[in-house]
Structures are given as structure tokens and as C-alpha cells.
Amino acid sequence: MPYIVFIAFFCLGVGLRQGALMDPDTGWHIAAGDYIRAHGLPASDPWSYTAGDAPWYNLSWLFDVVLSLVHGFGGLDAVVVAAALFYALAVAFVCWIAQKSSGSLIASLAVTALAGFVLLPGMLARPQLFTFLLILGFYWVLRFGGARMLLALPVLTALWANVHGGFLAGFVMLGMFFLEALVGGERKRALYLVAAGAACLLALLLNPYGWHILEAASLTMNSALKDVLLEWRPTELTAGSPVWLLVIVFAGVSALFEKSIPLADKLLACFWLAAGLMSARMMQIAALMSAPYLAQALALRLGQSPVGGAIEARDRDYAADLSKAAVRGVLACASVIFVAAAFAPPVQKALAGGEAFVETPASHAPESALAYADGHFPEARLFANYGFGGYILYCCRDVRPVFVDGRADTAYPRKVLEDAIVLGFMDGRGETDEQRAAEWKALTETYGIDGFLASTRSALLGHLMATPGWAKVYEDDDAALFMRAELARAKTKHMAK
């Protein structure tokens, strides 16, 4: 069954490939990977005019290198296919774990489909894709591996510490399985888990920043931008959405007091679902970590239903058919062929029907506005909306310094980020409108800002329209360029000559 799930969700991912570039951070991840490959790991930010000598803790440096290699191989077309590949691998891994946990192919397939659709917004070209696989790998070792398999956890931790700051999730999982062992009276296993946790802590230090990686993770979790970024806000439960359905199913199966379901599975499901409801960026992990519990609970409820016997018989028949070596071989070959074909330019061209296989989303890729700025104000110091920063680093990093971008707290001093909120999100610290306007103006002078590249959907656009001293020199459907009025007049006079 995992092979069928992989093929289905890989095809879904390729079909919805444009969504893989909807994260504005993809650009800076590619830029960082390019820089590391050419110059090594930088100690501080090389691209902004605000970070200064502040240390840059790039928690995803290894992911960035991999992404840079993929981009070098096939451009953004290859990047989106790779995102679909990792997404499909994660969903297939969920299916494998759910089926092994529940013993029911039907229940595991239903739960996997639900998890796959909740996970779909997370199919982005960003390092969370590695965290999806690593957290599932942690679970597999802890649930199905013996004492010797625990030796794999420090290896996974060392890898995790170099691809994404989500490595702390591994320690949460260790804690849940430790509690399960204690409650179950398994003292020997509890000691093994303590030893494994200690080894993971040591393995965590196998990164370019040593113990400072914990400081960097803390900076991210307590980001100055948490209040203004949507992914940090509580999840919105829209009726009929996959997340809404996940919550409904979780409440409906009602099996938290069933002794046949392991304690750690219940704890992980509850913990991550609560975390996902409090912060939207955690909801994809909630879908992954609730799958084992939900599959077991659903299998239990199906078995207790009036048609339980028929369902179990059908389950056995399906499992027997799919377990045949010939069937597994054909499905494995088909999986490889689908992936290889998706990376092939002729296939991509055919899938695109004569159009571009993928395009950078205009919502955070202001190509025309940047081209205008480069042609008319090449030396100007611009402040760009937060969502534009990654794209600027992707295409213009050597000629266009940024004020701030998605690297946020791991690269910029906190004061710079707080000032960016005032400048870009119009969230001043004064008590009156006059005080906030004065603060905004003072910050433009402090940082020597010559112009603003504003999203047409941002509050910044309206503020600039109403603020004297700034002139709109360019606007399209997605971005507008404002320059200091004196610079705009000077340019107009120069062009008139």
C-alpha cells in the first residue's frame, strides 16, 4: 500500500507544483546554498544593509546546499518536483506506520489520505520537508525498533541539527516514549531511552555552531515577528477543510482511554494536535504524529461496528494481494519511473502544455518592479515588504541589499526586526497616530532608506500614498515602488535631459 500512496500523492504534488513555491523563503534558501558551495558557511549575513556583524545561525545550511544542487540541476522546475517527491515520501511513510500500528489496511488508508491533505499546504520548498521525514523516522525507531535500533536516533539527530530547527521535536517524542515505559513498568527500556536521549544531546552538537544551535532555535521560537506572521497564529478551523476534518475524526473516534492503544501514541496525538491548533505552522506535524493513534482507533471502531467481520475479511484480502512480491516489484518500479519522468524536461514540457512548467508567484516575486528599480535607481537603498526579501536574494543578492528577509531572528538583531515591523507592518510603538508617524519617519532617516518596494496588498502602500515626501514611480498588480520625492524629481529631470 505505501507504494500506491506514494504514486498517488507524488502525482498530486506534481499536479499542484506551483504551490511548492508559495513560501517566500525558498529564494533565500537557494541563495544561501549557492553561497555556501562557493565560499563556505558565512559567519554573518553577506546581503543586507542592516544585520551588520550579527552572527547568522543558518540552521538549515545542509538543506540549502541540497536545494542549491537541485536548482543547479534543473532550476525551479526541479525544485518543485523535489518538493513533491519529499511530500509523497512523507505521506507514504505515514501509511507504512499507520498500517503497521493498526494492522488494518482500510483504516490506515483512510487516515493516510486525511494526513496527506492536511500536509499538502506544507509541500513547500523549505526545510520542513526534511523534518516531516525525520520525525517519522524517529517514531519508527522508537515504536518498532529494539534496543539496538535506538543507536539510530543520535544519527538522525545529527542530521536533523543540520537541516532544520525542528530537531527539538525528536526530544519531545523521546519524552513521550519515556513516560510510556515508566507507566508500563518497563524500567530497562526507560533507562535505554534516557541513554538514547543523552546520546542525542551530544549528537546535537555535531553542527557548525555547537551549543549555539539551541540559542538559535530559541530565537526562532520566540521570534520578534510571531505576532505579524500568519503561520505563527492559531489555526483557523474552516468547515469542510482537511484540518477541520482531522479534528472531527480525532474527537469522533474517542479512543484515548482504550488500553490497547499505546500511551505514547495517545500523548503524541494530543500534544501535537494542541500545538497545531495554537500555531498553524505545527499543524502538519500534528497530522503526522496523530496518524498512528487515529489508525488504531479507527481500526478498533470499525471492528466493533456491525460490519466489522466483513471489513476485517476484506482487509485480509487486500493485504494478501498487495503483499505479493510481484505486485510490490511492479509498484516499486512504477514509483521510480514516475519520479524519473517528472524530472525530465520533455515530460515537464508535456505536462505544462506549452506553458512554463512553474513560475515564481507574483505575490512575492516583484520582477517588474525590481527591474524598474534596477534600471532607474540602481544605487538606491530600498525597504521591501518582508515577503519580497527571499526573492530579492534569489535574483539580485549581489546588487540589491535587503533590509530584512525570512532568515529573521537567526540573522538579524532583534531591534532590526522590531524596526522592520514598524516600517513594513505599520505597527508603531507610539500611543498616538502622530507619535507613530514620527517614529516611522525617524526610522527611514536612521537606516537611510531611499525607497520602498511595497506589496499592493499591504498596509504600507496606503501609508506611503498618504505620507508627504514620497512619490510613487512604478506600480503593477502586485507591487509598487515609492522613492523619496527629491530622488524621483532628480531622476525625472535627468531623463528629460
UniProtKB/TrEMBL annotation:
Ranges that cross the membrane: 78-99, 105-125, 132-153, 159-179, 191-211, 239-257, 269-295, 325-344
Organism: Hyphococcus luteus
Domain of life: Bacteria
Assigned keywords, A-Z: Membrane, Transmembrane, Transmembrane helix
The keyword Lipoprotein appears for this protein: no
Protein name: Glycosyltransferase RgtA/B/C/D-like domain-containing protein
